[in-house]
Amino acid sequence: MKKYLLILIAAMTVMACSDDEITKLDDYAFTKNGNVWVPVKGQQRFLDVDFQSHIVGHGWKCTEGYKINDDGSVNPTNIFPIDGGAPYNYYFRKEGCTIYFVDYKFTSYYWELGYNYNEGTGIVSFDEPKNEGITLLSYDRKKGLLTLLDHVSFYNTVLVYRSMTDEELETIRSRHTVNYEEERGNAYTPEMEGIWGNWYLKEVNRGFGGVQTFEPDEISYCFYNHGPLVVQDTSGKDRAVFHPAGTYEYSFDEEAGTIAIDGSTYRCVLEGNNLTIDTGSAWDGPIFTFVRRIGSVGM
């Protein structure tokens, strides 16, 4: 009996430590499953009862963000605040979640979504778009800090969220008054959902000029579901590619097989996770091939 009590006390101590202390950044390790990072070290387990007790009923505001290095470790440089965007803020209820965000035109939206929590993986998957979600990594109950791996607003990024006070949550609610579900139809068609997400440039076929290939992490093209096309080029090379790093307005018509970017219209073909954009003939315009970055919960 005494031995049993000692084991029980030890188990309770381990649970309390994991519940009270947030994992340090250098304790995390990730590995790639396709093009998405998944945690292999440092992730705490969140039972559904823990999720309901500590996450549900609170607003969550992002305060820090960290990129994952090529070796699966976390880069200690905080990337926020940054120009050109910010992660979603969340308010979880038992029956749904409200997401708060500001688009590139500085419209403050709220978005009501259903979600599902998987305590085995720590993944919160939202109803849309395409079951994207977040992976819970650790929770600091004393400081009210939640660390997660983002697959929604800042793809493959470790984000730290702070629990909002009641006053902060009320302020965010008062500022985000536009219902995204009602407004998104004014600017976008349902067909555009097929292109939403993060893509990388795989190759450029220049006809008689040959084929140029790229690594998956070199050039990314993110078609936001509530905003623009954002192009990022991490190579640091001076080269002519399909739209250099920057922000562009776009519209996509899958049925017509066209995509318009900043006033220029191109022929395109979307087949599953592959996108081909033809900017002209083999004589005067290359053909670009993109591959969708596959997220752990369906991006």
Protein architecture, described:
This protein is an alpha+beta fold. It has two domains: 22-186, Lipocalin; 189-292, Lipocalin. Helices cover 15% and strands 40% of the residues. It has four helices and 22 strands. The chain has helices at residues 2-20, 48-55, 166-175, 180-187, and strands at residues 29-33, 36-41, 59-67, 89-92, 97-102, 108-113, 115-118, 123-126, 133-140, 145-150, 157-163, 178-179, 197-205, 211-213, 219-223, 229-233, 246-248, 250-253, 258-261, 264-271, 274-278, 287-292. Strands 7-8-9-10-11-3-4-5-6-12 form a ten-stranded mixed beta sheet, sandwiched between helices. A hairpin with a 2-residue loop joins strand 1 (29-33) and strand 2 (36-41). It starts with a helix and ends in a 7-residue tail after the last strand.
Specify the overall morphology: globular
Trace the largest sheet across and list its strands.
7-8-9-10-11-3-4-5-6-12
Q: What oligomeric state best describes the polypeptide chains here?
A: single chain
> What is the averaged pLDDT score?
79
Terminus-to-terminus distance: 51 Å
Structural class determined from secondary elements: alpha+beta
The count of DSSP E runs of length 2 or more, i.e. the number of strands, is 22
User: What gyration radius follows from the Cα positions, in whole Å?
Assistant: 21 Å
Instruction: Just give the CATH class of the largest domain.
Output: Mainly Beta
**What is the helix fraction of residues, given as a range?**
10-25%
What percentage of the residues does DSSP assign to strands (E)? 35-45%
How many domains? The number is 2
Order of helices and strands: HEEHEEEEEEEEEHEHEEEEEEEEEE
**Number of helical runs?**
4
CATH architecture of the largest domain: Beta Barrel
Poorly predicted tracts of residues: 1-21, 187-191, 295-299
Largest sheet: 10 strands, mixed
Q: Tell me the CATH topology of the largest domain.
A: Lipocalin
